[in-house]
Amino acid sequence: MPIELPEQDPCVICEGLAGRLDEWVPIEERELTLTLIPEIQFEIGQSLVVPKRHVALLTELTDQECDAIMTASRRIMRAMVDAFDPLAVFVYQNNGVYSGQKTPHYHMHVVPRQPGSDWGVGPPHFTRFPDAGRAPGVKGSGEASPSVRALASFEAREATAARIREHLRD
After folding, report:
1. What are the tens digits of pLDDT across the range 54-93?
2. 110: helix, strand or coil
3. Shortest CA distance to 42 belongs to which of 104, 89, 85, 75?
4. Is the pTM of this model over 0.90?
5. Fewest Cβ atoms closer than 10 Å to its Cβ: which of 4, 118, 133, 170?
6. Is 126 exposed, middle or buried (0-12, 13-18, 19+ CB in 10 A)?
């Protein structure tokens, strides 16, 4: 049985790569990849590395795309360590809806884990508790999902991308 993919038409990542999403904040573009700051920021600096070609699963990537994605992930991780001095950096990706994949376009998450983080261990979008992602001392009704509570403004993401870009090196 094939791995079930999320349904999404058009693919939001392909739309962003085509320049049809104003909210995208790129950090770095390379021959085969684009690294960006997504709208959802479970941790400040959370980034995605995406292949430019539409590919849904890890098994569909070429060897060159695998190399390019890992190289871009390593570059962004190094820049994050220099920019944010995190406790750790969480690197992960999902293959299929039952692993948490939400868009049918392969993407690698690179997430600096910050001091004071309350997202727990593991992929932060799987964390479930009432005040996840809220600023310290801010109480809420617990109605919004963690993803909604983690939405970052375009300006905040631009500033974060600039901070990371300052620390990119070969």
Report:
1. 999 999 999 999 999 999 999 999 999 999 999 999 999 9
2. strand
3. 89
4. no
5. 170
6. exposed
**Model confidence at 34: pLDDT above 90:** yes
- Name the residue ranges covered by the structural domains of the chain: 12-122+144-165
Q: Which two tokens stand for residue 68?
A: 């390019």
pLDDT in tens, 92-124: 999 988 888 889 999 999 999 887 776 666 665
**Cα atoms in the 13 Å half-sphere on the side-chain side of 54:** 13
User: What sign does the dihedral 29-30-31-35 (CA atoms) show?
Assistant: negative
CA dist 80 to 63, 114, 130, 142, 152, Å?
26, 11, 28, 30, 18
Q: Residue 2 pLDDT > 50, yes or no?
A: yes
Structure tokens at 114: 């910050």
Domain 12-122+144-165 bears CATH identifier 3.30.428.10: yes
Supply 105's token pair: 């376009």
Q: Do 161 and 25 form a contact (C-beta atoms < 8 A)?
A: yes
Verify cis geometry, omega within 30 degrees of 0, for the bond prior to 104. no
Residue owning tokens 């049918």: 104
In the numeric block, the tokens 């739309």 are attached to 15
Q: 33-37 and 47-51 as β-strands: parallel, antiparallel, unpaired?
A: antiparallel
Q: How far apart are CA 72 and CA 57, in angstroms?
A: 18
